[in-house]
Amino acid sequence: MKASKMDILNEKSSKGKMQAVKEKLSDMATMRKVKSDAKAEEQAEKDLAKTRIEVAKEIRKAKEAEAGMDLHVAKAGEIVQKHIEKHPDDLVNAAGAVGIPSSNENSPGSIGSTNPIGSTSPISAPTSNNLL
């Protein structure tokens, strides 16, 4: 039996259609993978951005807390200085009092602590800007 030209053309056409369908399916699978990868990358970038925002907030809170502590230390120094000015004869170092010299350490009216070298350093707010 001899195949007619029409049968041969139909067979070639059928093979060509099958190949086109296979290519289309392959292209669709590739596109799904690319979209999936892009979506995963986008989510990772969003997560990183959220983390950076959280870190920035915590740094801001730490700076605010440090500034508040500095303010309280400065206020405490002012209160001690005012007390010393009002009561120069009352320089006995009370238990737990920080920065008030006993009568045998420093001259009346000075506030601070004596370091090992012997100089007096006044009470002041810490000036540290290091947060991390």
UniProtKB/TrEMBL annotation:
Residues 101-132 have a biased composition (Polar residues). Residues 94-132 are annotated as: Disordered. Signal peptide: none annotated. GO terms for biological process: embryo development ending in seed dormancy. Belongs to the LEA type 1 family. This is Late embryogenesis abundant protein. It comes from Coptis chinensis.
